[in-house]
Amino acid sequence: MSAAGSAVATARGQRGGQRSARGGRSSLGRRLLGALAVAVSLAWVFPVYWMISSAFLPTNELRTSEPTFFPVDGGLGNFRRVFTDPTFFSSFRISLAVTGLTLAAAILFAFVAALAVSRFRFRGKKSFIVTILVVQMIPAEGLFISQYHVLDNWGLVNAVLGLTIVYVAAILPFTIWMLRGFVSGIPIELEEAAMMDGLSRTGAFFRITFPLLAPGLVASGVYGFLQAWNEYTLALVVMSDPEKQTLPLWLQGLVEGNRATDWGLVMAGATLITVPVIVFFLIVQNRMSSGLVAGAVKG
């Protein structure tokens, strides 16, 4: 073999070794990222598992020095006690009513506002958009006193409508901003083409544009549902009557301040409160994922 041939073979071998080394480092990096993802997932999932498993254990076992990771001797006693508590069902009805009204009103108002901002030109449009951003930056705690005084003057303290108004005002800025991204991402030419084919403006909107906005509406709905269903602080301020509490307030009432807390009962209540959230998420998860990704890109 000539000297030139030997040099070429050596260079090829070196390049092959470099590719192999890079491939090994890339494979190691993927394994490390996978291990990190598993560790982070376990850190998030374990509290949920601990809550559910503790719900099946009697309180005396939860107070032992050795933790019980598997409820071998567990039962449904804690759940029976929750269902026999009449305040649980009244709080459930109030939470369901507040969440449903909040979701419907927030999506409707945000949808109309997003259409106006994206499709029409009007005086003060930029100021309106800036106001939406500024409102999102204001801490909710800074508005508690003024909100309470307004609701008190209207006679809406300890009322489902009063809490709904507060929730809608808190959720609207983000939902408007999210839906604005979806509406802006749909070309107006689609509606114009449908109108040229004989559809009215309203028909073109509901047959062409509205179906394309479904992922955005679902994503905004999930956000509004989670905010209204799980919110605690605003409900504590507005719903001070013990007979008109939402589920988070009811759950907090199970934690005794001066006596030993029945943690089995608390965990059973927390588990039941999460069931509607899980069911709602399973129903809309596909559209929610596509909606969040599209909204992030289009927004």
Automatic annotation (TrEMBL):
Record CDD domains: TM_PBP2 (cd06261)
Record GO cellular component, one term: plasma membrane
Biased composition (Low complexity): 11-25
Family to which this protein belongs: Belongs to the binding-protein-dependent transport system permease family.
Listed transmembrane segments: 32-52, 94-116, 128-150, 156-183, 204-226, 263-284
Keyword Membrane: yes
Location, primary (coarse class): membrane
Protein name per Swiss-Prot or TrEMBL: Carbohydrate ABC transporter membrane protein 2, CUT1 family
